[in-house]
Amino acid sequence: MKFPRIASAALLVVGSAHAATVSVTQGNGTNMLTKQDGSGNNASTVTIGDGTNPDNTAPVSSTNGLKVDISSAFGTAGSSSTNVLSVQGVSGGTPVPVSGTFWQATQPVSGTFWQATQPVSLNSTPSLANGNGVVLTQSGSPLSATNGGYQNLLQGNAALSATNGLYANVLQGNAALSVSNGLPMQAVSPYPLSSTPITASAIGTTAATTATLAATSGKTTYICTMSIRANATAAATGNATVTGTATGTLNYTQWTAPLASGLGVTEEVFMPCVPASGTNTSIAVVSAAPGSGGTVTVTATGYQQ
Prior knowledge:
By secondary structure, the protein is mostly beta strands. It has strands at 2-4, 10-13, 22-25, 31-35, 47-49, 57-59, 84-86, 137-138, 141-142, 196-204, 210-213, 221-232, 236-243, 250-258, 264-275, 283-286, 295-304. Among the domains are: 1-89, no CATH class; 196-304, Jelly Rolls (Sandwich). Mean pLDDT is 74; it is low at 1-22 and 41-46.
């Protein structure tokens, strides 16, 4: 940074009796103004002119100050000049304060940059006109509640219809099913696989009557149904039992009907079938005694496994 060099003025007053001269000079020794009195004697006052006519002078005073023209002391910006002093650093001197906006570690940046999600706009909205590949059509019209889609299923190279129904060849023994080659049906047994169905039945008169599902070594007997039917001269009520079952005897109230009223019926279907209390254990169904003139039948069914 450079500063202008202000011209200095040396004021010399010579007080000798003869040829006194007052001179104002620049710092480089060049005369600016020399003033003598008319006779070449000492000038009693220092005067300064208007800069154009040295004789147009007036004494320096509080109202006529000494003026020094320093306009020539400034150089032109960007050009070197002998009248301009340069600052030679701050070593041993006072630093020159500098202010303003300079380069920053973090520079503020504003504007629009690349975004993770880019906005996309269309010049025009795609047409959903019929048949453009966007809307499904049927016979040239968009599918709707009144124009549903259909497909032509073929049967014998002809479209399915009321007179050309769909059929399929179901094979039995590598031959199509027919009246003479029917589909075999295998009955489903109510008993478990590898089981053996068993039954027991007995007829009695006035006394209690028993029907027993037998026991078999290494197998368990199950009872699935029981039936007691009885009548007698007079109506009677007694207790029928099923013994040998899993956790104890089962009891049923049995009514014996009078002869004039038909039969008293006591029956039970066990779902699931009830097992005996262990392997090789029989299950017995025992009726109540019908009494005088009585007739009774006792029946039980089950299986062993």
